[in-house]
Amino acid sequence: MISLGIHTAGPFCGVAILKDGEIVAEQETAMRRGHDQFLPGIVEETAKASGVNLMELSSVSVCVGPGSFTGIRIGVAFARGLALSNNVKAIGVSSLEALLGKPPKTNTLVLLPAKIRPPDLTFWAQHFNDEGLSDPIELSAYDVQSFVEGGAKIVANFEAAETLSGILPGVEVERAEAKAAGVPLWASTAAKNVLREPSPLYVRAPDAIPAKSPLL
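Structure (tokenized):
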């Protein structure tokens, strides 16, 4: 089984190739804009580094958000097009699922930074327990505390962990790094009932306001 994973929902453009359960090649380039220009080249370079022909793919997985509005749309469109051209399945993976890399075995709340400017500090959050697939939501730090009191383990990337420790210093947080490899790893290890469609996942409306037409 060979799977290509794409992650363009964060401040980087990342691609990873999973072959027989192992990541055989991975590439990430820091960027907040321009994913559409760089993604095809990064996919090609990563495939060459792994010795994999893209026509050999068994599936294509893609991070569907929450995160960069434009980056998500670019990654999803590319993944769906590549999957369609190869007649393979495209699988959606949330940003929080990609951060974990595989389904947790215990009650877990995963966090990424959402609003990062004080006093509005919030987190993208996804709760994992025995009830199956949950959708990401937006939580305040004090909302997070209620999950802690309910026995949830907290996993966060470094930025979210630092923010949370400044507000709730007594909360224990396991830190994880967002990597493109988490996308195909999650898609390959999650049960079928917790796999997503390859469609953009937005928790709230984008921060950007579309320009008005001069004719209006």
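The chain has two domains: 2-97+178-194, 103-175. The helical segments are 35-50, 69-86, 95-100, 141-149, 158-167, 182-189.
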